Amino acid sequence: xxxxxxxxxxxxxxxxxxxxxxxxxxxxxxxxxxxxxxxxxxxxxxxxxxxxxxxxxxxxxxxxxxxxxxxxxxxxxxxxxxxxxxxxxxxxxxxxxxxxxxxxxxxxxxxxxxxxxxxxxxxxxxxxxxxxxxxxxxxxxxxxxxxxxxxxxxxxxxxxxxxxxxxxxxxxxxxxxxxxxxxxxxxxxxxxxxxxxxxxxxxxxxxxxxxxxxxxxxxxxxxxxxxxxxxxxxxxxxxxxxxxxxxxxxxxxxxxxxxxxxxxxxxxxxxxxxxxxxxxxxx
Length: 283
Ligand code: ZN
Known about the structure:
- By secondary structure, this protein is mainly β.
- The chain has 2 domains: 4-68, no CATH class; 79-281, Fumarylacetoacetase-like, C-terminal domain (Fumarylacetoacetate hydrolase, domain 2, Alpha-Beta Complex), CATH 3.90.850.10.
- The protein is 12% helix and 32% strand.
- The strands form 3 sheets. Strands 1, 2, 3, 4, 5, 6, 7, 8, 10, 11, 13 and 16 form a 12-stranded mixed sheet that branches. The chain has a 4-stranded antiparallel sheet with strand order 15-14-17-18, with no helix packed on it. Strands 9-12 form a two-stranded antiparallel sheet.
- Strand 2 and strand 3 (21-26) form a beta hairpin.
- The termini are far apart.
- The structure holds zinc ion (ZN).
- Residues 81, 128, 130, 159, 245, 247-248 line the site of zinc ion.
């Protein structure tokens, strides 16, 4: 089986199946204690995890549901995000097309589970569906050609944004406007992409109450995954379990005329091909 990695009650899990129907296998017990139960520690031994996942059978494990999953990346040492990384989104926001990656930070305290409620603040909270890179072997000055070898896998994320806070000053500041409590759901699991030929061109969608609002292929990114990892690692050392949001496409609520912001009771579904679905309710 190719490796999919999740967390249940803070313990590391192999995932067998897809979002529609999946089972989990406890990593530490299945490996007879040779692999860690601690989720974040697993990113340092990703190659061993991958080797063990290959020995699992389709019938292994116990049935599980989205609601039982914790965030698969609960404590990244660094949580980066790329702003305006899709041309159509830069245009809808009235922003120039970046010529170098526009980076900001999301803070760890904003992390949410793949089915967690999102507590809205004010009346201008917005959705942004994103592909999230999770680092395996870290490093510095990683070349674009080597970048995928430093990536554990990818997961789906929501970069929930309080637009009023984001645009409250000149120039706008992104980090706080995107770091309110619960504003960073990720999951349902981290999918290893080392043998996935379409890993640079995956469909990514966001629906609100079943209506598709965002729909793109990830090869529409201005700076692609190897470029982002190479660029960042030339500035900051990357560590196992670091996570990088890679930007959103057009169709966010703020880009509509008039804007359509999130309302209490809305169900946000973020779907990333090759990974799965996360579902978050606004409260
Ligand atoms: Zn974003």
